[in-house]
Amino acid sequence: MNASTAASFSVMTPADLGLSAASTGRDVRLAARSGGFLGHTSGLAAEYVQVNLAILPTELAGDFLRYCQRNPKPCPLLGVSEPGEWTLPDLAEDLDLRADVPRYRVWRHGELVAEPSDLHGLWRKDLVTFALGCSFSFEHALLADGMRLRHVDEGRNVAMYRTNIPTRAAGVFHGPMVVTMRPLKAADAIRAVQITTRTPEVHGAPVHLGDPALIGIRDIMKPDYGDAVEIRSDELPVFWACGVTPQAAIAAAKPAFCITHAPGHMLVTDRLNQQLGRS
Amino acid sequence: MNASTAASFSVMTPADLGLSAASTGRDVRLAARSGGFLGHTSGLAAEYVQVNLAILPTELAGDFLRYCQRNPKPCPLLGVSEPGEWTLPDLAEDLDLRADVPRYRVWRHGELVAEPSDLHGLWRKDLVTFALGCSFSFEHALLADGMRLRHVDEGRNVAMYRTNIPTRAAGVFHGPMVVTMRPLKAADAIRAVQITTRTPEVHGAPVHLGDPALIGIRDIMKPDYGDAVEIRSDELPVFWACGVTPQAAIAAAKPAFCITHAPGHMLVTDRLNQQLGRS
């Protein structure tokens, strides 16, 4: 199942809803909350930190915290909610975790069973929300440095792949690392290593570059999530750890019930990307 | 002409002379000064900063200083002598620039005319010596991080190539950038970008990685200076700007007379590599 296929069911485009790179995080949240915006958030509210979500029953929260601690590159933890609460005060005011993500994924026993745009009928008092940093934040820094990113230029979701790089297990959670890929010329790839090294809270430096087969990717034009982009003859594919990794761990752990965001359909916070890299 | 071919004429190996990675800069200088050591200095006196040399008449010194200022990646200037003096007090005590390099190159009108191991018969009162940082210094940091470098493992000189990357001209000096190449696995290439970014005074981050043809290198197994090394299927060639670049500029500028070191046959100083990266 491809997240951008689901997004194409949406009648309203971001432009129809007045959303753009210049929007605020709150603009995007309110558009998602109203039910009008169901699309991916790549390129929107470019100044604001976007986050991956894992929403788990309390009984799994300890295992998941340890999983994040042991795998900081795919799972950089930016916020954890109080059990049952749908707020993350450190990341955003005026936030409703039950409605502010354009598209969620509901998982039962490791199977993806639904992609709702609202969780009101599914919310439980024992749910704990984990917010993980997202590569869209460092894209802001790459673009600010003058780089071009093809999926942004083309209005696509970023390409994501399951790899053969194992994560470190914690309790029930284990599985392969998921990565995002951006094609870059060599000099830009080197600059991108320098720039993204500065922000470990949004995945830090790349985990691989060059031959995709070396990390178990068979066909670079068939991403497991998001949209494929062309890689030109003078470019290298550059791979970063991705906050969709927990979804592979959830598929492996098969918890009775949990919720995530749909890949590329992020929660947009009030934090500014330019404030990252200062810890 | 291949510098390591010249080195093979030497009867005495570094081991014969008691030279190793554990030697001091002064040990290597004295071995060169005695005339016993004619070889390349890769892997020797690993704790100590090695430098590239350009020794030019005073009338060209201003142009060359500007050339270095405009091209800091290939030409990071660590020291400049007083005219006619064969010392560099900031870089080494007990230093004789006329004898302490294992092998020099003498250039007349842009042509390489000799590779002596001693300059006593050639020294002039108007010569100014420029000392430029060398990639052997950052190799120390890469090895300290646990990386393996094939040319070091195999006791070879590093592979160097003329590229199609232009330098910025200054006065009579212009020409292509020369680079060193080390084959690394992708994860090590990423770490190498991070580590070498910290030391701009010894060439800083790589200037290219991946396809050699993109920077004008036709045959990676035929370096223009130094020794070829194997690149395995799970490795990328990683390229750094090289302090041999001035030799390409001298070949282009064709000054009536000047002297350089022979590629890979460096002046070893008293400065410690671990003290780099603090400016």
Would you kindly provide a written description of the structure presented here, covering whatever features stand out?
Chains A, B: Its EC number is 4.2.1.-. Chains A, B: Belongs to the D-glutamate cyclase family. Chains A, B: It comes from Ideonella azotifigens. Two copies of one chain form a homodimer. By secondary structure, chain A is an alpha+beta fold. Chain A folds into two domains: 21-133 and 251-275, PSTPO5379-like, CATH 3.40.1640.10; 137-241, PSTPO5379-like domain (PSTPO5379-like fold), CATH 3.30.2040. The first copy, chain A, has seven helices and eleven strands. In chain A, strands 1, 2, 3, 4, 5, 10 and 11 form a seven-stranded antiparallel β-sheet that branches. A four-stranded antiparallel β-sheet of chain A has the order 6-7-9-8. The relative contact order of chain A is 0.24. Chain A binds chain B through residues 186-187, 189-190, 193-194, 197, 205-211, 214, 234, 236, and chain B through 186-187, 189-190, 193-194, 197, 205-211, 214, 234, 236.
